[in-house]
Amino acid sequence: MPAADDLFRPTGEPTVRAVPDPPAELAPDAVPQKGPSGRVRHDEKITVYVTSAELMELEKARLTLRGEHGLVVDRGRLVREALHLVLGELEAEGESSALVRRLRES
User: Fold this and answer.
1) Residues annotated as region Disordered (predicted)?
2) From start to end of 3-57, where are the E strands?
3) Closest-CA residue to 80 (of 41, 36, 50)
4) Global pTM value
């Protein structure tokens, strides 16, 4: 079921539209910057099953971001940002990252 933000979003043509720049040619030794993709068209999709409690926590986080911080984000963007943070920590801290510790506990 779509979120309320998806149902009540403006349908007119936006005055400013964010379009990503085409990828620049990278030098052979250049490493592209890692980061969450933000508000761009996504060509790939995954399905993740969550419990009703996990979905409620995700919605509470989304509403907290909106109500207390003025950030209007959908669930997909929230998950992509969280994924970016967790994977960045895994890359930086490896064995001592929270992800490795939590997965070892389960």
Assistant:
1) 1-43
2) none
3) 36
4) 0.60
